[in-house]
Amino acid sequence: MREPTVDDRFFPLVVNTIPERLDVDHLPAFFAKTEAVLKRREPYVTISDVTRTRELPTAVVRRALADWSTRNEALMKQFAVGSAIVIESAMIRGGLTALFWLAPPPYPQQVVATIGEGLDVVERYYATTGRTAPGFGAYRAELRGAGRVQAR
């Protein structure tokens, strides 16, 4: 996979998958897909799977991400219920968690080690809305089929 993906087949669960290297040229399409989710104007949760990522984003990519987040902060505060970021490296998870303590994101985020943990986290976040979300079970089944989570 060369480009980041935004998978909203299981909405209100949105799964972002980040490739080995995040290239600035791929950000406009990634941003457009994410903005389409925001334009639904409905509560949603996100899992960002960065387990494939092998390179830290460049300064240009980090700036573009920060600028986009600033421009869309109000909508994210309104509709993003919570997020889980899946990072295998304990050291990088710890560093990002510490960063969130210093500069809290506009909505709840938790850094986790596995996709299964991420799904558990966002299910708990979404439960706070009082709504039901059949997409969580469908996504868990897909993950089980791919061998990425254990059966409950």
Highlighted features:
single chain; 152 residues; alpha/beta; five-stranded mixed β-sheet; 6 helices
Topology record:
Layout: E1 5-10, E2 13-17, H1 27-38, E3 44-49, H2 59-71, H3 73-79, E4 80-86, H4 90-102, E5 109-112, H5 115-127, H6 135-145
Parallel strand pairs: 2-3, 3-4, 4-5
Antiparallel strand pairs: 1-2
- Could you give a short account of the major beta sheet? 5 strands, mixed
Pattern of helices and strands: EEHEHHEHEHH
**DSSP summary: helix tally:** 6
Low-confidence stretches: none
Question: Could you say which overall geometry the principal axes of the C-alpha atoms support?
Answer: globular
Number of strands: 5
**Given the helix and strand composition, which structural class is it?**
alpha/beta
- The percentage of residues in β strands lies in 15-25%
Q: What average pLDDT do the residues reach? A: 91
- Cα(first) to Cα(last) distance is 29 Å
Strand order of the largest sheet: 1-2-3-4-5
Helix content: 40-55%
Radius of gyration from CA coordinates: 15 Å
Describe this structure in words.
The two termini are 29 Å apart. It is built from 6 helices and 5 strands; from the N terminus they run ββαβααβαβαα. The protein has a 5-stranded mixed sheet, with helices on both faces. Strand 1 (5-10) and strand 2 (13-17) form a beta hairpin. Helices cover 45% and strands 18% of the residues. The chain has helices at residues 27-38, 59-71, 73-79, 90-102, 115-127, 135-145, and strands at 5-10, 13-17, 44-49, 80-86, 109-112. The model has no long low-confidence stretch (mean pLDDT 91). It has 152 residues and is an alpha/beta fold.
